[in-house]
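Good morning N.,

You mentioned wanting to compare the apo and holo forms, so I went ahead and generated the holo version with zinc ion. This is what I fed in:
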Amino acid sequence: MSSTQGQTIRCKAAVAWEAGKPLVIEEVEVAPPQKMEVRVKILFTSLCHTDVYFWEAKGQNPVFPRILGHEAGGVVESVGEGVTDLQPGDHVLPVFTGECKECDHCKSEESNMCDLLRINTDRGVMIHDQTSRFSINGKPIFHFVGTSTFSEYTVIHVGCLAKINPLAPLDKVCVLSCGISTGLGATLNVAKPKKGSSVAVFGLGAVGLAAAEGARIAGASRIIGVDLNANRFELAKKFGVTEFVNPKDYKKPVQEVIAEMTNGGVDRSVECTGHIDAMISAFECVHDGWGVAVLVGVPHKDAVFKTSPLNLLNERTLKGTFFGNYKPRSDIPSVVEQYMNKELEVEKFITHEVPFSEINKAFDLMLKGEGIRCIIRMDA
Ligand SMILES: [Zn+2]
Ligand SMILES: [Zn+2]
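and this is what came out, ligand included:
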């Protein structure tokens, strides 16, 4: 039993006081975990685009002051009432969406869209009592997607924690808690390319490169990367991407370019940009008769997907996925094992590292589009 169990912990957290303003490292109070909650000591966290979107709060509901962060690795400090599958000392990855194991979605083999713990970006409080566990001088600081990992300690619902192999290095596998699993699962769980097949990946950011990594693991022989930024192509080779298409280099639609390159279309495509035109291209570039397109990127709320129904009648399949169809508690531990077994390469996604005191540098790097993942070390 830890000496801090049942006590409020004072620790450092990076607080976003206002939209778009640099985070401020503050001393915060973190209340003990309540029913079905777990208090976690975060050791490493990384920055994902979603943190930046909600920090900028353009087109989103502004919820401030808030502690952002959702890709991370840590160790359980203490558990609240009713928590039986985790105990102090367990190594965990927080996940922005959860698995209660009791709702219809959790009971379905086909879904990971838990009714109770599905991502809710507007909620800044814990679901148990609709209050925050974070405060500064009595003033509550809001949570973010149930994780708030930009804090030395955080409180998370047990359903949003994947218990992983304690031998897995947390400074590496922390990136599996969001973006990398999203892309990897889109390919391995949803697109399911066969060995020797062709796969097109739209968007070569972290999620798209993880989708390419999934295609490499599946044994695809051609992986075609599509991106408007030619600078990404060199880096993408490390992820098994064999050919590149920059839509800006052609006058005709990219789906026609890909159809010509592949004798009628790719076997699979994975769309990771969220741009509606790319989504339509990703669907129309798959081969008739067997092609499968998987949408991962989140579009603008007013976007409309327009294609001829004949494209479907000609036996093309269009699918969408959320968090790579992984159930956080049931499946993420095995993704960590894929890394431990050297099937999945994680190191190549990690391009930068900064101490927690310099967390704003990670934001600068992402805003400049530099690198893939920046690890933030909490003890430095
Ligand atoms: Zn993320
Ligand atoms: Zn559920």
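Residues 48, 50, 70-71, 178-179 surround zinc ion (ligand 1) (CB under 6 Å).

Happy to go through it together on a call whenever suits you.

Best,
F.
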